[in-house]
Protein 1
Amino acid sequence: MSVSRYPEYKDSGVEWLGEVPAHWEMKRLKHISPYITVGIVVNPSTFVADDGLPFVYGGDIREGIIDWENARCIDVASSEANAKTMLKAGDLLTVRVVLQAYCVVHKGAKPQSKL
């Protein structure tokens, strides 16, 4: 796979990151996000239901995508009780699995009832 080159680069100031495109801005996530949450912190398997709304586990996230087809379900009442974890368009989801991290921006759509 070939990645397009940008015309100009600058040092990121982060040793492990190296150079980044010159037009990129670095900002702390806490300065651009109204809040940061870690989802449901209790054992999420207690919320799994046979039908309801899609329930995204870390394993459902790949680089740039959410695997909605294999997502488990959470019943509507449990989803509403954990309202801060409901996805909204523009939400940034990140997950770290061992030494790898994945990130995706939720574009909206999908979370409708899955029967």
Note: The longest helix spans residues 76-81.
Protein 2
Amino acid sequence: MASAWELLSSERQGQAGRRVLVAKTFRMPDGSQETCTVTEFAAGAAAAVVALTVRGPGGRAEQYRPAPARLRAELPGGGVDPGEPLADGAARELAEETGYVPRELAYLGEMRYDGYSGMARHYFLATGCERRHDQRLDPGEFVTVREVSPGELLTLAMAGAMTDPGGVLLALPYLTGDPQVRALLASPPLRSAGAP
């Protein structure tokens, strides 16, 4: 039977880039002790945005990512500065990476990457986005902005072809007005059993 583990200690082990490694020791339900190494996000919180322009298409980012060693589609986003409200951080990251400024910004929810990561990403829906300025990227950041329809965004998420499909899932109730999204939901594409 699953039950909560009792945290006995938590010790920072080091940092790899923006990720902090933490050794957490727990008392297990059977009384034994187990130490797990988990990752935390050094900035504390991260936010990403499903952005819809005034014309309807959404903006998405494309960046080279070192772990998969290829370009990946993703939602614009990044670390929230200490003391910065989540919504302000999301709007700032959207503007920095894409130049888009939203008319409205709504909180969608939080998702975690996996059971050994304490990193949470907070997702927002930005509507009425207009490009107001050029990108203002951080040093070492190289982002290509592409406009995609809500249906194309859902296709990328369903195919596992982007880094934040969870944000698209959280935005799904707001995207169902798009005919391509409704068609995908009515007849989702099947992947073969051997597909990666």
Note: The first strand starts at residue 6 and ends at 16.
Protein 3
Amino acid sequence: MEDYLSKTPQGYTYLPVKRKHMLNWGGLAVCDYCNADMEQGYLVYILNSCICPDCFNDWVKRAQTYTEDLKMQDEYQDEWYCHHINFGHVELDVKRS
């Protein structure tokens, strides 16, 4: 899973996903923050959300690092991300560069 995850400057992991991924795990491809329809979005463990690029960028600008969140993220994120992506046997398109 680490090959696919990226991190914000605060250390929070996220996974870029496409509409087909969202629909396959049972999502509606609608941003959890602003309700915009999404063709692509960001799955963010620490927020327990999938959000559109605009909301993601806004969140990254104002997010703060909390060590207790990073500890929880390190412990549980792989299972959480795998649940979303492997549900429906959807393959990720590209690895993180």
Note: The CA atoms of residues 68 and 74 lie 10 Å apart.
Protein 4
Amino acid sequence: MAFSWYQKSVENGNIIGQYYLGYCYEYGIGIEKDEKKSIYWYEEAFKNGNIDAKLYYADCYRLGKGVKKNEIKHLNIMKLLMLNFNLVIVFIMESEQK
């Protein structure tokens, strides 16, 4: 049931729904397990700004789920995430000092 709601949310452009579709496909929740579709939806979600999806996308490369295992690609994605988080922390700290 949840799977169909996530599909409907994706049809309306919801990036959280994109992430959850990836999750459902990865673990076979409400649909047959399909790691290739999982990575597709994680990628769509992270391209649209969903940070959780980017973590799961990177993990797929670390574990070889739906893609060829590639630890270098995994580490590069994680470096980008760390850089993004560092920029957010700096912004917050600067805002608090004003």
Note: The chain has a mean pLDDT of 88.
